[in-house]
Amino acid sequence: xxxxxxxxxxxxxxxxxxxxxxxxxxxxxxxxxxxxxxxxxxxxxxxxxxxxxxxxxxxxxxxxxxxxxxxxxxxxxxxxxxxxxxxxxxxxxxxxxxxxxxxxxxxxxxxxxxxxxxxxxxxxxxxxxxxxxxxxxxxxxxxxxxxxxxxxxxxxxxxxxxxxxxxxxxxxxxxxxxxxxxxxxxxxxxxxxxxxxxxxxxxxxxxxxxxxxxxxxxxxxxxxxx
Length: 226
Known about the structure:
- This protein has helices at residues 30-37, 54-68, 79-93, 155-165, 188-197, and strands spanning 15-19, 41-43, 72-77, 107-113, 142-146, 168-171, 215-217.
- The protein is α/β, with parallel strands linked by helices.
- The chain has one domain (8-224): Rossmann fold (3-Layer(aba) Sandwich).
- The chain is globular.
């Protein structure tokens, strides 16, 4: 779904849908903090948090996106990133999302944080239910955020996934799995990345570190060309 951004500022403010991963996101997680502080931000209840089922998650995600009835930004974490990728894969296969379409859907971007390895050496066998990693480029702007010391995915793997999805790759430094244990609070760096996907940036109250991790372009898709 390539979007026509010319009249985006005339559209309603986007709904920010957080898409948690395995076990959902509890207190102390940046997704929980964003839901409490950002306007129009709410969680997609995928259910089966400890016993994830790919098609169930994909269907519930699709329902939440349709019910939003306006532009949507997805902010996914861990296995939730795979749910987003599989939703886009199924929608493209059905012809609902296509590159070059002016109104192919209401997702205008996605922040994909710390997707896990579901193929090579997954840390939990339940993660393999989302294998293989969808190979098709995602049809909307995406940023894949990876940590240098994430036990669930190496940076080498993250670069490969980002390249396949046509995502920009953001290096979050040594932030573990970028979850509650990472103690990120409102996660200022993530908020800055989110702002690059929003038509109108939201204020970031937390002081920004002087040295921010980097963001790089792994590949260029039609919607990214100037």
